[in-house]
Design brief:
Oligomer: single chain
Shape: rod-shaped
Helix content: 40-55%
Radius of gyration: 23 Å
Largest sheet: 5 strands, antiparallel
Order of helices and strands: HEEEEE
Strand order of the largest sheet: 4-3-2-1-5
Number of domains: 2
CATH topology of the largest domain: SH3 type barrels
Strand content: 25-35%
CATH architecture of the largest domain: Roll
Length: 98
């Protein structure tokens, strides 16, 4: 084994280590966040309070597969359809206990 082969092996080893560190610091947390966001969007129901990605607060009044209709403010006439992906936070509606 000559010196150039050993240095090539060390370079490949360092590349593997750097990729492993990048995976655990960047890619893995992003995938976990995507799973959390998808679970939140799947658990939404009519009546839940939401915050949109642009900072508006509202209440879900109707849902389809990809869209929701959100009522904003106290004015019952302010109903806007929007994509589910535009929702940043969901607060579940209070359930009346029996």
């Amino acid at each position: 084994m000559n010196e150039s082969t050993a240095s090539m092996g060390m370079m490949i080893l360092w590349m593997v280590v750097i990729f492993g560190v990048m995976y655990f610091l960047m890619i893995r947390p992003q995938k976990k966040e995507q799973k959390r966001l998808q679970a939140m969007l799947n658990s939404m129901e009519v009546g839940d309070s939401i915050v949109t990605t642009s900072g508006f607060y509202g209440v879900i009044i109707d849902m389809t597969e990809e869209d929701v209709i959100v009522e904003f403010g106290n004015n019952k006439n302010c109903r806007i359809p929007m994509r589910k992906q535009a929702i940043a936070e969901v607060e579940k509606a209070e359930q009346a206990s029996a």
